[in-house]
Amino acid sequence: MMHQLAAGIDIGGTNTRFGLVDKNGKIHFKDSLLTTDFPDPKDLVNAVSEKILSFSNPKQQTTNFKLLGVGIGAPNGNYLKGTIEFAPNLKWKGIIPLAKHFNEKLNVPALLTNDAKAAALGEMQFGGAKGMKDFIFITLGTGLGSGILANGELIYGHDGFAGELGHTIIIQHGRQCGCGRKGCLEQYCSATGIVKTYFDILKSENPHATDELDTSIINAKYIYEQALSGNEAAFYAFNYTGELLGYALANSVTYTSPEAIFLSGGLAQAGELIFNPTILSFEKNLLPIYKHKNKIKILPSSLQEDDAAILGAASLIWQNPKP
Amino acid sequence: MMHQLAAGIDIGGTNTRFGLVDKNGKIHFKDSLLTTDFPDPKDLVNAVSEKILSFSNPKQQTTNFKLLGVGIGAPNGNYLKGTIEFAPNLKWKGIIPLAKHFNEKLNVPALLTNDAKAAALGEMQFGGAKGMKDFIFITLGTGLGSGILANGELIYGHDGFAGELGHTIIIQHGRQCGCGRKGCLEQYCSATGIVKTYFDILKSENPHATDELDTSIINAKYIYEQALSGNEAAFYAFNYTGELLGYALANSVTYTSPEAIFLSGGLAQAGELIFNPTILSFEKNLLPIYKHKNKIKILPSSLQEDDAAILGAASLIWQNPKP
Predict the structure, then answer these.
(1) I want to staple A69 with a disulfide (CB 3.0 to 4.6 A). Which of A73, A198, A288, A317 is the partner?
(2) Separation in Å, CA of B184 to nearest CA in chain A
(3) What is the pTM of this model?
(4) Chain A contact for B133, CB < 8 A?
């Protein structure tokens, strides 16, 4: 039997993970390479392509498959141009036409978008957003990424850079952001943001609280474990993060009135610790007309964290298969 | 010659204005009735329908025309249901199925949306947004209304209530809003908002400043005239309004990355007095990636204020003509 498969490729600062995905979201093969091993992006394209082409799975007797296309999720990915543009977390400088490279190498359609938008598509194609036409997908990782679906389509905007909710200014004159502005949402609601909040809380109790701490071990996971073991400052750090996130999400609703908002990424793994204060603040700040019958749900992503990026990238192709 | 025309009906708290519009945006006939004369919405539907049907313009020899459909713009209009829902500015209470009433009376398709969304469609069909797929349309009237276009389509959201930017909370714990929350954008950036700002400025200079003033004459137009004649407080009121509006619009860009943002309504008629501080603050608060080549434009609506609502309502039909 000839399988029809789409390649999903997730380019990260450290790892490039990829797999072959069928129309039901089953991953038939996956592998990874170190992104940093390839100073020239064309060499990564060649290496990934060879691995994909050499795939044959004797167990499933899929020695033969038809590759429908290549979907790529990447930081600072521009869907409209198929390029990665000035990504601060990658060693490749400037504008990289990665979709074009894959298209030339494999002679199939290649589509690229940013990692959060790809994950949003994956959630719609294979996850909890199946059948939804209007939803927002948020990734709470090092930064805060987002993908917004309206009328059943991803919003790219006129330049491909829609959905940068992490850079909504949430507190005027707030924390300095890497973008050059102050008070951006991702400075508060992300794995990085909660660490800053935790330090702020410790210092507000005792200005020298962090002097003796090995701050290098303090990350979102550490704060999560501290909160579980009864550390009040850690618990309050989650509360404050959720309070701001819920407030920001309530504002988001005034734009696209989504059916649901999905939270994914490291910080979302904290479960109730982050979801409870987020939902509380969301409901408190929501415009009353959105509180009627069709209650807007705040949900965890239903895709396995490890596979979400590959599925999302592949769904770029499965959204519009051209067999 | 048999003209094909769409009816555009603009329901306001005081007046209901309507006209017949051809596919080029030419209004072949217009008239109005007092909304308040019709305690029963069905009676208004009958009166408007009779005026529309009796239309014959001897000058243009259009004694005969084919009515393609009826488009309606109304406060609190729900496109998905064709209803006006709990509109605070209308005497009709509860949920009014106005599109159904027109459909039954005239036996043509009838579509209804809120007034700002209708105006956004009009701008795309007949005005400065022709050819744009991604833009935001803002009305600065008594409140702040908005219509968001992405991927060439209006965003309605899962419940029809997307595009309520006037109720984005812009200042936490700020001015009390009629919606029950505090700090909503329309409490600052609207004809009503600038009056509050003007009073705040006067009182900050002298707590008794408004004691002797006939505050009933102070509206946005008055402040505009004061600003033109050199009144500093009035000038600063426009500056402050523009500063907050530019900041809010810069945040809006992170959602849909529009090609342009259109400002319409009474306050937008103030021209440079409102556009200059808005653009200045917009550029200052904009995420750097949006400042590259494709500069996002802040523009006045190109439609005549008086006709915009009728054209917008008619464009609901012209968007998808079913002749």
Answers:
(1) A317
(2) 10
(3) 0.92
(4) yes
Q: Which of B161, B255, B258 sits opposite A257 (nearest CB)?
A: B161
* A169–B contact, CB cutoff 8 A: yes
CATH fold, domain B128-302, is Nucleotidyltransferase; domain 5 (3.30.420)
What's the pLDDT score for residue B323?
A: 43
CATH architecture of B3-115: 2-Layer Sandwich (3.30)
Interface contact flag, A158 B252, Cβ < 8 Å: no
Looking at the complex, report in whole angstroms how far the Cα of residue A210 sits from the nearest Cα belonging to chain B: 30
CB-based contact, A181 to chain B, within 8 Å: yes
3-state DSSP of chain B: CCEEEEEEEEECCCEEEEEEECCCCCEEEEEEEEHHHCCCHHHHHHHHHHHHHCCCEHHHCECCEEEEEEEEEECCEECCCCEEECCCCCCCCCEECHHHHHHHHHCCCEEEEEHHHHHHHHHHHHCCCCCCCCEEEEEECCCEEEEEEECCEECCCCCCCCCCHHHCECCCCCCECCCCCECEHHHCCCHHHHHHHHHHHHHHHCCCCCCCCCHHHCCHHHHHHHHHCCCHHHHHHHHHHHHHHHHHHHHHHHHHCCCEEEEECHHHHHCHHHHHHHHHHHHHHCCHHHHCCCCCEEEECCCCHHHHHHHHHHHHHHHCCCC
Q: CB contacts < 8 Å between A and B, how many?
A: 133
Cβ contact B168–A259 (<8 Å): no
Tell me if the domain spanning A3-124+306-318 has CATH number 3.20.20.450.
no
**Residues A239-243: what's their mean pLDDT?**
98
Of B151, B157, B292, the CB nearest to A257: B157
Quick check: B209 pLDDT over 80?
yes
Cβ atoms of A32 and A16 within 8 Å: the answer is yes
Q: Which two tokens stand for residue A125?
A: 């194609």
Average pLDDT over residues B148-162: 94
Q: Taking residues B69-93, report their average pLDDT.
A: 90
Which has the minimum average pLDDT: A164-173, A186-195, B82-91? Answer: B82-91
Residue A278 pLDDT more than 90?
A: yes
Q: Is the CB of B168 less than 8 angstroms away from the CB of A254?
A: yes
Residue ranges of domains in chain B: 3-115, 128-302
Mean of all residue pLDDT scores within chain B:
92
Q: What is the mean pLDDT of residues A252-280?
A: 96
B289 interfacial to chain A (CB closer than 8 Å): yes
Q: Does A259 touch chain B (CB under 8 A)?
A: yes
**Range A130-302 classified under CATH 3.30.420.40:** yes
**For range A14-36, the mean pLDDT:** 93
Flag whether pLDDT at B294 surpasses 70: no
